[in-house]
Amino acid sequence: MILGCHVRMTAPDFVEGSVREALSYGADAMMLYTGAPQNTVRRPTAQLHIAGARELMRENHIPSGNLIVHAPYLINPANSVKPEVAELAVQFLNSEAQRTHEIGAKYLILHPGSYTTSDEKTGIRTVISQLNKLDDLPVDLVICLETMAGKGSELGTSFEQLEEILSGLRSTENYGICLDTCHIHDAGYDVRDFDSVLDEFDRIIGLRHLHVIHLNDSRNPIGSHKDRHANIGEGSIGFDALYRIASNRRTESVPKILETPYIGGKPPYAAEIEMLRKGEYDPEKLNSLRNAL
Ligand SMILES: [Zn+2]
After folding, report:
1. How many angstroms separate the alpha carbon of residue 32 from the centre of ligand 1?
2. CATH homologous superfamily of domain 3-291?
3. Residue 293: what pLDDT?
4. How far is the CA of 195 from the centre of ligand 1 (A)?
C-alpha cells in the first residue's frame, strides 16, 4: 500500500523537511505545493534542500514517483472569458513543470479549471489550446489532470470530459489523471463500488493513465457537487470503502495521498495512515486529537 499525505514545504528545511514530515507519519509517499497554494510566488529551487530530500528518500527506499507536486489551485487554464487568466496559467505552468522536475518529482497535479460564464465546450477547448502552448515538458514529467466535484463551472467532473481533454493534447505521454475519491463521490460516482468505477475509468480513459489517487472522505452525500473533504471514516464514503480503495490490487502501484482536514490544528495523517495500513477503523484515534485541544 503506497500511502502518503499532503505535507508542508517551509523554511528552514523545505523539501527535505517535507520528506521528514511524511516519514514521521509512516508515509511512503507525499504531496507538496512548491509555495503557497493560493498564489504564484515561488522561491528558487536551489534554496529548497533538494539534495537532502533525495538522500532521505533513497535511505527510505521511496521512489521519485511517490513525491508529488500540486499546482496552485487559483490558476485557471480553462478561462476563455478572461484570456489573460488562461495565459498566466500557461506561464506559471511552464515554470512549475520545471520546478517539479528539478525537485525530482514525476507527477504534477493540475485542476483542469472552470469555464466561468462561458460553457463546457468552450472551456474544454480552452484548456486544450492553453496546455498545447506549454513548452516541451521533461520526458519523465506527467501532468495529472484531477477529477473534480463539479462546484460551479468546474471541468473534470466526468471521465468523458477528462478523456476529451486528454485526447486533444499534443504530448499524450506527458499527461495522465489524478483521481480524488471525495471529488468523484461528490460528482456522482459511487466509490463504495470501486471496482465498477475502475471498470468505467478503464473503458473511457484507460487505467494505465491513472497515476495518483487522492484518498479523502467526503462531508456531503453522493452527487452533491460540494468538494468538502472529511477525515477517513468520518464522512459519507466511510472507512470500509476507503480501505477497499487503498488496498485494491488493480491500483496497487498508484500512490494514495490523503488531503484530509487538520484536527484541532494538528495533522491527522499518522492516525489515518496507521488505520488504513492495518485495515482497522478506530474512531478514538481521531477523537483523541480532538480531545487534546
Ligand atoms: Zn487538487
Report:
1. 11
2. Divalent-metal-dependent TIM barrel enzymes (3.20.20.150)
3. 61
4. 23
